[in-house]
Amino acid sequence: AIRRTVIPSIEESYVGKGESADPLAEEHTTAVQGLVHRYPDRVLFLTTSFCSTYCRYCTRSRMVGGHTEALQKHWEEALAYITEHTEVRDVVISGGDPLTLSDEMLDYLLGRVTGIEHVEMVRIGTKVPMVMPQRINESLLAVLRKYKPIYMSIHATHPDELTREAARACNALADNGVVLGSQTVLLKGVNDSVPVLTDLFHKLLRVRVKPYYLFQCDPISGSQHFRTTVDKGKALMQGLRGFTSGYAIPQYVIDTPGGGGKVPILPQYEVGQDDEHLYLRNYEGKVFSYPTARENATC
Ligand SMILES: *Cc1c(COP(=O)(O)O)cnc(C)c1O
After folding, report:
1. Does 99 sit in the ligand 1 pocket, CB within 6 Å?
2. pLDDT recorded at residue 266
3. Potential cystine with 250: which of 70, 86, 147, 214 (Cβ 3.0-4.6 Å)?
4. Is 227 exposed, middle or buried (0-12, 13-18, 19+ CB in 10 A)?
5. Domain ranges of the chain
6. Domain 2-267 carries which CATH code?
7. pTM
8. Are 93 and 70 contacting, i.e. CB atoms less than 8 angstroms apart?
9. What is the pLDDT of residue 298?
10. Is 274 a catalytic residue?
11. Any atom of ligand 1 within 6 Å of the Cβ of 92
């Protein structure tokens, strides 16, 4: 499964309908080079184009690999933008993979971002704990410990990634005060089954990583062989809810092509409504009614 996610295959040469190099139109919501400002109160800071793994379905494959220095040249402009925009309270530090930066550069970056008065939280998007767990060493942890709160979104794809070494890395991050979540891309033939997803999310929870998002695979050029239908994704979510801990269940989302942002997708749980009731289907397929109060009801 892991091999399929990183080794190029001939299927990538086929560009399917609706696929493009930048489906999320990030280039159009780029405020300054390397900074995507799509939502009102948070920004995505692409700090480096170097990555820890080159996933074949990567939504930023247009800009990762090679040009290591390219984005670092623009850090000061991005920091100035965040400083000027007092509505930004949350900064997502991503790339490439920011944990491929040196401890010194990360320390500098985190110091600058958390030093901005209106920035309340920082999140680091990374796959390093899964693919290069030895990077989570004492000197990196000493840097991360200095800044609170730091959230980390770990890209996790398959339960086989949760090796003893990866587990140690996640636990070390949690022990040092980093709040951990995971992001998973739903991939055909890799993780598109209830048992595989359940195993992945259970293994993450055991090492204190809360499953955060399950992404429908973005229509990046040459990714059709990885994409499941949305109905399949809904069926998988239905196979989780109720059958395991709510903590093990991420939000299934589509990051909308064109730059509309993430939209949650749910199986059909609301099956009907009348003046007095909302009809809800539970995980066993049984329908229950919930008494709905009218907005202007008088007692
Ligand atoms: C995903 C994303 C975020 C963060 O979204 P959350 O739903 O808050 O996790 C912010 N900016 C951009 C451009 C994103 O793609």
Report:
1. no
2. 97
3. 214
4. buried
5. 2-267, 270-299
6. 3.20.20.70
7. 0.95
8. no
9. 64
10. no
11. yes
